[in-house]
Design goal:
With about 90 residues, the protein is mostly helical. It has one domain: Helix Hairpins (Orthogonal Bundle), CATH 1.10.287. The protein contains three helices and no strands. Helix 1 packs antiparallel against helix 2 and helix 2 packs antiparallel against helix 3. The longest helix has 26 residues. It is flat, with a radius of gyration of 15 Å.
């Protein structure tokens, strides 16, 4: 039963990533593209967590934490650049 749930999660997260990629490429505004990139990052974190559950390895969870931290910093930097025109004041 757990294997079925994990495989279903892979399929659904893969579908969500494809839809986010479509919004990233097709977004009418830059804010839509930033939001799609942030959501794509969240889906990648979920995918890593599912790989970690499937492989029973804690290395995937540590990689997911690092990816979450990097994604947060990237989103903040992109938003700051969008608002002010520079990242470092």
């Amino acid at each position: 039963m757990l294997n079925f749930a994990i495989e279903t999660g892979f399929v659904l997260i893969g579908l969500a990533m494809l839809l986010n990629l479509w919004r990233l490429l097709r977004g009418p505004d830059i804010t839509d593209r930033i939001l799609a990139l942030d959501t794509l990052n969240i889906n990648a974190i979920a995918l890593l967590v599912l790989f970690g559950i499937r492989a029973a390895s804690s290395a995937y969870f540590e990689a997911a934490l690092i990816l979450a931290a990097m994604g947060f910093v990237a989103t903040v930097a992109l938003c700051k650049f969008l608002l002010r025109g520079d990242i470092i004041e």
